[in-house]
Amino acid sequence: MRALAALLLLAGCAAPRAIWLAGDVQLDDAVAPAPVLAAARGLRGVGVVNLEGPVGAGKPGGERLRNGPAVLAALRAVGVEAVSLANNHSDDDGPAGRAQTVAAATAAGVRALGELAAARVGGVTVIAAYEATPTQLAAAVAAAPRPVVVSLHVLAPPSYRPTPATRARVEAAVAAGAAVVGVHGSHALGAVERRGRQVIAWGLGNLAFACRCTAEDEALALEVRLDEEGVIAADVVPLRAGLHGQPLALDPEPAGVVELLRGLGSSPLLPTADRAALAPSAD
Hints:
single chain, 11-stranded mixed sheet, 7 helices
């Protein structure tokens, strides 16, 4: 094995990286996060999710969201190594709440990424974005070491179709060289598209959410293997989100989700028992 690794380095090739992306997480301290998130242990690679709301004791109020103090350790236990704080609820407890969230993430061994922040995670560069314009996002992607994965939060109603504003930012990131773009924030699924060595998940849905402000339980995780040139292989894993204290689970009828994704215009999908592979693109 060491000899093979040395040969790869001599050839200028790095071993493939494995990473998975999922959508929104919000679990206040009325919910025990570990059992809610346990099923995510079956996902392959290093995890990246969106943390919707700051970490702090107490229940959320009004339009504010909050995550309980145990959430980040529970996420780290299922393989998450980076969380996006680039979303519309990250400042619900103000600057002090954001600072507390970053400190809690650091203590749990998780990278907390603010707007257009980039971090090397699992051998890839992860960039978080919410408010960035297409031009700003493209510039951040173009300047980052390859391969680049973008975790993009949007403010949009639940819909299977991306808004024009979402589409503009995704297209800008892809044109700038992002290998993967995962969209979240509408709480709804979207098509999964492969363009050569690039993959777009137009809607990841919720991963786990305590607030009853969303009832969208259709979700997916996107598993990808990458090298410096982009995506080698990608799988879609249909999920049932862990809503309102119920545990996250593999979708009991993954074939139905695959048919939905096909109907939304996804690239060709090759189903297996609990997931579907994205067929290599002809591009």
